[in-house]
Amino acid sequence: MTTPTDSSQTPVGDLALLGLMQLVSPALPIGAFAWSQGLESAFELGWVNNEDELGDWLEGVLEDGLTRCELPLLVRMQEAWANGDSGAITEWTDWLHATRETAELTDEDIRLGAALVRLLGSLDLLPAKDRLPEDPGYVILFAWAAHVRRVPARQTLLGFAWAWLENQLAVACKAMPLGHTAAQRLTERLRPKLVMAVDNALQKEDHELGPVLPGLALGSALHETQYSRLFRS
Question: What's the whole-model pTM score?
Answer without folding.
Answer: 0.90
